[in-house]
């Protein structure tokens, strides 16, 4: 079974070969600028998480505190079902779902997409874990993950036929940084990984190991 990092490396090589050089340059520039800006550093190990109450793909409200009352929660924020790296990550978590459950943890994925878009992502990837819709990035902002996309990157996306704002049901053009947290039943973060580079994702097996050893 391929690891997430292997899947990402394969996709990056394809992108490098197929995407126009100017597009690659501008996307890399946006990543470097975001990293240098220092914005959206994310909550850290030892922080208490805020309460989240968000609709799942069917519109049913899910409470983070309710899930924590059942045990550890693995909470991962992704950009949307339009993002190939996010889909690779979600599929990798699906492959590890049995191990997550055996570790006594609940897996929750959150994006700023509308519930309808989240449902499409869940069905397309045949995901059997909870996928929540954080319209307006309200939850992601409380986790200090949200940044505005620069105008030139918006233009690159639009030229590629990608309407991020439409997926999110607004005109904000704001995204969360990809982030993964392991949260103990008391609501304290015991593992946190947040990256300005959207191509870098936490290996699910690493998170499972942390949950298993908790």
TrEMBL record:
UniProt-listed SUPFAM superfamilies: Thioredoxin-like (SSF52833)
Enzyme Commission number(s) from the entry: 1.11.1.24
Pfam families: AhpC-TSA
GO BP: cell redox homeostasis; cellular response to oxidative stress
GO molecular function (one): thioredoxin peroxidase activity
Keyword annotations: Antioxidant, Disulfide bond, Oxidoreductase, Peroxidase, Redox-active center
InterPro entries the UniProt entry points to: AhpC/TSA, Peroxiredoxin_BCP/PrxQ, Thioredoxin-like_sf, Thioredoxin_domain
Top-rank taxon: Bacteria
Compositionally biased tracts (Basic and acidic residues): 7-21
PROSITE patterns: THIOREDOXIN_2
GO CC aspect terms: cytoplasm
Region described as Disordered: spans on this chain: 1-21
Catalyzed reactions per annotation: a hydroperoxide + [thioredoxin]-dithiol = an alcohol + [thioredoxin]-disulfide + H2O
Every Thioredoxin domain range: 43-214
Keyword field contains Disulfide bond: yes
Class in the EC hierarchy, top level: oxidoreductase
Protein family membership: Belongs to the peroxiredoxin family. BCP/PrxQ subfamily.
Function: Thiol-specific peroxidase that catalyzes the reduction of hydrogen peroxide and organic hydroperoxides to water and alcohols, respectively. Plays a role in cell protection against oxidative stress by detoxifying peroxides and as sensor of hydrogen peroxide-mediated signaling events.
Name this polypeptide is given: thioredoxin-dependent peroxiredoxin
Organism (species): Marinococcus halophilus
